[in-house]
Amino acid sequence: MPLPRAEGKFVEAWDALSQVRDGSVVVISGFNMSLTPEYLIQGLYQLYRSTGHPRNLFIISDTFPGSPGRGLDWVAERLYNEEGADQEFIRGMLVAYYGWSKWLQRLAGEEGFEAYTWPICVLAHWLRDVGAGKPGTLSKVGIGTFLDPRQDGGALNERARRARTARVKVVDVDGEEYLFYQAPTPDVAIVRGSRADDHGNISLCEEGIIGPVLQMAQAVKSRGRRGKVIVQILYPVRSGSINPKCVVIPGPLVDHIVKAPEDKHWQSATIKYDPRISGQVSVPLEHLDVRGVPLDARKVIARRVLLEMLNIALEKGTGYAIVNLGVGIPSLVSNVAAEEGLGEAIVATVESGPWGGLALHGPDFGVAISPRAIIPLIDQFSIYEGGIIDAASLGFLQIDEEGSVNASILPGRLTGPGGFPCISTGAPRLFFAGMFTAGKRDIRVEPGKGIRIVQDGPIIKFVKKVYKVLYCPCIGKDKEHLYITERAVFRLRDGELWLEEIAPGVDLERDILAKMEFRPRIGKVREMDRILFSPTKMGVAEEFYRALRR
Fold first, then answer.
1. 10 Å Cβ neighbour count for 43?
2. Which of 351, 385, 486, 501 is catalytic?
3. Are 238 and 305 members of one domain?
4. Which residue of 51, 190, 350, 468 pairs with 146 in a disulfide if CB–CB is 3.0 to 4.6 A?
5. 308 lies in the same domain as 269
6. Is residue 540 part of a domain?
7. Which residues pair with 353 in a beta bridge?
8. What is the pLDDT of residues 122-150, one digit of tens each?
9. What band does 290 get if pLDDT is binned at 50, 70 and 90?
């Protein structure tokens, strides 16, 4: 017999969302605005405002479904301003990153709901494990950090610490410590795809990433559970028009399909649709509009990271290094490499799945223009955790005397870890890159000469003890650790930070030691290479390719 058609699954948003009951655990897809079902998220809140239901929801997402003013931030702004901490729509939330929503951070800080955070990799693998009928996820990620139950266990406020709805515990496996992550199994999945055919098969062909939407559907349906899978799509198509290999969620796992208006279904925060993002059109790297980075302190740091990565490519003998570049200054490394004519020497990966191409920044982070490959997010993180990449360059807020790093959490700033703990746990070489101080500052590059500090930042970032540990070198004693700033480069040796390089124009006592809460070990200190301060290209490509041919 032929498969039944799915005409009955195509419904209006109100009809689908009315299936969500009070107290439900709802898992929602979205890496920033990529794969975020914006139309359904807004519809769910509007249903609550109109009827008072559903209420007391526990929301889970692998990353964060939204951006400033959109998705969950759109909801949170209304909750905060209309109901404040007394809101009854959300009772708890477990997501990897709150950083795009100042309103959720305010609600969490004011104890408006139970606020939890786990890294992206843990959440993605947890969804797959729950879908396989397992009680939780076992991982090395998070040991010795704020995710460890001996510290905060991933709880961001007192409500979460008391309730422990999402919990972490330490377990011993053959004499080794692991963290075991557990949370409530989802009742409803609200996810997004590009197309749905007559049988309800869902494709992501117009999307920029392959997020864990299948794992969300599996979690809802595992062990005979009758949870609901609601999918936002843009294009209903006829049966047979989707290549079976492009089907991400098979039709029998889907309960309701809602066609969204185009203005609620963007590829990223500022891009409605670009075929180069979804891979439907590919442009050679040399033809992409790679804008040069202006000569400033940030570019100096990115250049210094690039030199380390080129050395890796030479050591390997392959002519390329596979790397992850985090948000902020590290993301500039690919632009600097392209500017130097070394775009192919740095195979930059984005944690959401793209390899190569031109990775986008800011709220568009997560997608790339003309990537060479787009693999599922869950597999991308397996590559990071498995140490299959050569290196990672990640940003930092604080660094302490033991080399521990706080990347994203300060008092009143509850951004969450994102993919940082997963990448830093697995990468064999870590280049933490950022400005030496924070706050209002005027730090200039003297072309061809060095650094001139007109006004230094008032906030010290090299502290005695970081506020929250997001990376602990205790789990990576065999790794290479460099801490690269515009004025100094440090290396971790035997659990201590050693000062190795100083920028020309910088005074050791006044500009470095006086701006640290601890004194690093100081041995033979060399001057940072003056090509880092060149007003034109560094000109390292010719030397790199000549060395490669030797």
1. 22
2. 351
3. no
4. 468
5. no
6. yes
7. none
8. 999 999 999 999 999 999 999 999 999 99
9. low
Q: E strand or H helix at 259, and its extent?
A: strand 256-259
- Identify whether 348 is part of a domain: no
Catalytic: 351? yes
Q: Which two tokens stand for residue 252?
A: 């029998």
Closest-CA residue to 420 (of 434, 405, 438): 405
Give residue 314's Cα distance to chain centre: 29
pLDDT band at residue 549 using 50, 70 and 90 as cut-offs: confident
Q: Which domain holds residue 244?
A: 7-273
For the chain, the domain total comes to 2
pLDDT band at 1 (very low <50, low <70, confident <90, very high): very low
The H or E element spanning position 58 is: strand 57-60
Q: What is the rounded distance in angstroms from the CA atom of residue 309 to the CA atom of residue 313?
A: 6
Q: Which of 495, 452, 476 is nearest to 394 (CA)?
A: 476
C-alpha 292/C-alpha 414 separation (Å) is 33
pTM beyond 0.70 = yes
3-class SS at 498? strand
The single-letter code of the amino acid at 526 is: R
Q: What one-character DSSP code corresponds to residue 121? A: H
Q: Give, in degrees to the nearest 5, the angle at Cα 232 between 372 and 181.
A: 75
Q: How far, CA to CA in Å, does 277 sit from each of 194, 283, 380? A: 13, 10, 17
